[in-house]
Every structure is written in C-alpha cells, then in structure tokens.
Amino acid sequence: MKAYIIRRLVAVIPVCLGVTLVTFLVMAMLPGDPATALLGPYATAERTAELTKALGLDGSLFTRYVTWLGHLLEGDLGRSYSHERPITGLLLERIGPTALLAATALAMGVLGGLSLGSAAAAKPNSVRDRVLSLVSYVGVSTPSFFVAMLLVFAAARLRLLPVSGMRSVFVDDGRWLGSVGDICAHLLMPAAALGIVVAGVIARVMRAAMLEALAAPHVELARARGFDEATVVYRHAFVVAFARVVPVIGLQAGFVLGGTAYIEVVFQWPGLGKLLVDAIVQRDLLLVQGSVVLIAVMYVLVNLATDLLQRAVDPRVAA
C-alpha cells in the first residue's frame, strides 16, 4: 500500500505541471492586449508599455512561462489589477467557501445517490424501483444551473431560505451558533443545485452495482445461511457495490468543482468560481491563471484521494 501511495503521488507531479502549461498557453493565446484592456482605449503608449512589463508580457513565451512557474512554486501568483491585491491572498480567502460548498454538495449527492440506488436494487422491477429510477433519471437529465434558477424562484416566492450570498448582514458574528445557522441556510440551496445531479448519477451506478452484487455467490450463501434480507443487502452486497461507485464519486467531485463557477454566480456565493468568472470578465489574466490552476490542482488531489480510497476499499485494484 505504501509503494502504491508513493507511485500515485509521483504521478501527480507531471499532471500538475501539465495543468500549469495548458493554462498558461490558453491565456497566452487569447486575442487582444491585456494591458490595453485593463487601461482602456485612451491609455498612453508609455502607460501601456509600463503595464505590459509589469504583467510580464514583454518577454518570449518560454521565458514568461518559466518565470511564472518559478513564482508559482514560491507561492507568488502575482498581483491582481482588478482587485489591486496579491492573488495568493485572494485565492486563500475564497478557497474556504468553495471547499465548503463543494464538500456539502458532494456529501448530499453521495448520500442521496447511495440511498436511492440501494433502495431501488433491493426490490428490482417493483413500483419502488421504477419510481426511484425515474427520480434518478430526472436528476441526471436536469442541468444544475436550471435547478439553481428553479430553487431561487421558489425560495424568493416562498421566502423560506436566503437566495444570495454566504451570510446575512444583520447576523451578529459574535454569536457563533447564529452565524453557523445563517451560513447553513445560505448553503442549502446552492449545495442542493449541485448535489441533485450527483445523486442521480450515483444512484444509477449504485443500482447496477447492487444488482450485480446481490447475484454474487457469497450473497446467495448468506441467504442460504438464514440471514435476513436487510443484512444481506446492506452488509454483504453494499460493500462490494460501493467499491465500484468510488471512482464515480471522484469524477463527480470534479463535476462539482467545475460546477461551482456558475452556481456561485447564480447564488452570489463568494468562492473561487465567482472570483474566476469576475476575473474573466475584467480580463485579469494573472488572476484567471491562478484560479484555474488552483481549481485544477484541487481536482487532481480529489482524484488522488479517490484512487487511494478505492484501493483501501477494494485491495484487488491493480497497484
């Protein structure tokens, strides 16, 4: 297991380097002059040249990449011209809300999907199976941004939950319990908008895996030994089926991280996704590069954790 972990950690290094290279090249190939876009069409040539040099855009492509990568490895991502602040500090402020939103959405989706898939597979071809399968199909087929807009409309009409931001302005930050409850109230709808799709996907995979596991010889042996059906399903078949679902959970974690961009815009959630969208609109290239690299590295690390979890759950996974 230790050798497997070391090999997976070493394999992450070229992937992260590839992420930085692709991100840099995409930003470099964008049309237009970033300095002119930031200063406006009436900027002087001297000021434009000064900003071009400050952005590090006056050298060759290779020199610019090596310089940027060196600063990145030192933890220096440059300075955001739209926020007039160091980019590293901005990202550190926003990573917490995004991690909270993504983790909550993934937890809701995983728990919901495992429950729906297991309940449907326990009674195959029954009314319950058909109803739960229909629910999972609807979850898979509905885009997250459409679910988000429906939730915003419903919450605005019913006045049940807040529809914007991470906390209310009138909540006293000194009241710890009140602040946590307020954040949870703001968190529920954006997490649900992402989690519904995740639940639908995992439910479909879990149902198929459970049906296969329930037909396995060791499950039939458990039934022959007189175990009740609940024990057979949730103790003997569930563990085997869950090992097949773990890779899908990793893929859905990537979907959740990517989906935070538009979900955070819809709900005005102050995370990395909203910061990235705002930086794209304002053509803040250094901030865009830093945000994309951070989100991509988070995705790589989540997939690494998923591989290690699958290895722990199912040791038969090839080392």
Structural features, described:
With 319 residues, the protein is an all-alpha fold. It has two domains: 2-85, no CATH class; 87-313, MetI-like (MetI-like fold, Orthogonal Bundle). It has twelve helices and two strands; from the N terminus they run H-H-H-H-E-E-H-H-H-H-H-H-H-H. The protein has a two-stranded antiparallel sheet. A hairpin with a 4-residue loop joins strand 1 (79-80) and strand 2 (85-86). The mean pLDDT is 82.
Secondary-structure map:
Layout: H1 2-28, H2 34-39, H3 45-54, H4 61-73, E1 79-80, E2 85-86, H5 87-122, H6 127-141, H7 144-158, H8 176-214, H9 217-224, H10 229-267, H11 272-281, H12 285-313
Antiparallel strand pairs: 1-2
CATH homologous superfamily designation of the largest domain: MetI-like
Element-level helix/strand string: HHHHEEHHHHHHHH
Beta-strand residue fraction: under 5%
Which CATH class of the largest domain applies here? Mainly Alpha
- Total strand count, please? 2
The end-to-end span amounts to 8 Å
Strand order of the largest sheet: 1-2
Helix and strand content put the structural class at: mainly alpha
Largest sheet: 2 strands, antiparallel
Number of helices: 12
What is the third-level CATH name, the topology of the largest domain? MetI-like fold
Q: How many independent structural domains? A: 2
Q: Note poorly predicted spans.
A: none
CATH architecture of the largest domain: Orthogonal Bundle
Compact description:
The chain has helices spanning 2-28, 34-39, 45-54, 61-73, 87-122, 127-141, 144-158, 176-214, 217-224, 229-267, 272-281, 285-313; strands at 79-80, 85-86.
